[in-house]
Amino acid sequence: MYRDNTLIPTEAVRLAALGCLLEGERPYGELASELRYFIARMIGPSLDLLGTSLDLMCYEGLAVLAETTDGALVGPQAIKDSTVLRITDAGREAFRVLMASNIRAPVNDVTKLVVALKLRFLPLLTDSERADQLEAMAEMCEQELVRLRDLQAAYGEGLLGRWLTDEVDALDARHAMFTSLQTTD
């Protein structure tokens, strides 16, 4: 993690993988395909993100082969596309730590990916963890709105002004969504 407790890109991928495994066991190939699909559709293809090895999670004890009940480490040559992976207790804890991370403003592609992942896996959290995350997302929007409104005040004319207005409107809508989810959750 960065010093401000926000996720680095490889941790965002790890969050995606652990969240998927928390939803249920998955064959290695299916998990890898789902991660590639989701990440590429959210922020475009990225070797920095897609190059992360799922095998490492097994070595670190965050996931095990479903057929292995003792958590024995298996070399990468033993993991095939059809090999089923299961999350471990250590993986569950790592998921919770990653989900509890801060969200970095200003918003960039990785931040958008992290927000999307947090929204996707929000139902896997406890009520209080969910409330904390929704509050953090609303605060991130508030920080972004201050920054964009400042720009809008300085450069609110012409095409840039129109673009800034669109950005502010979209952020206002996201902020309203996160705030309303806090009250209905």
SSE layout and pairing:
Elements: H1 9-23, E1 26-27, H2 28-43, H3 47-50, H4 55-59, E2 63-65, E3 84-87, H5 89-99, H6 109-121, H7 127-155, H8 158-184
Antiparallel strand pairs: 1-3, 2-3
Helix pairs in contact: 1-2, 1-5, 1-6, 7-8
Report on the architecture of this protein.
The chain folds into 2 domains: 1-104, Arc Repressor Mutant, subunit A, CATH 1.10.10.10; 126-185, Monooxygenase (Up-down Bundle), CATH 1.20.1280. It has helices at residues 9-23, 28-43, 47-50, 55-59, 89-99, 109-121, 127-155, 158-184; strands at residues 26-27, 63-65, 84-87. The longest helix is centred in the last third of the chain and has 29 residues, at 127-155. Strands 1-3-2 form a 3-stranded antiparallel sheet. The chain has 185 residues and is mainly α. The protein is built from 8 helices and 3 strands.
Would you kindly provide a brief summary of this structure?
The protein is mainly alpha-helical and 185 residues long. It has helices at 9-23, 28-43, 47-50, 55-59, 89-99, 109-121, 127-155, 158-184; strands spanning 26-27, 63-65, 84-87. The protein folds into two domains: 1-104, Winged helix-like DNA-binding domain superfamily/Winged helix DNA-binding domain (Arc Repressor Mutant, subunit A, Orthogonal Bundle), CATH 1.10.10; 126-185, Monooxygenase (Up-down Bundle).
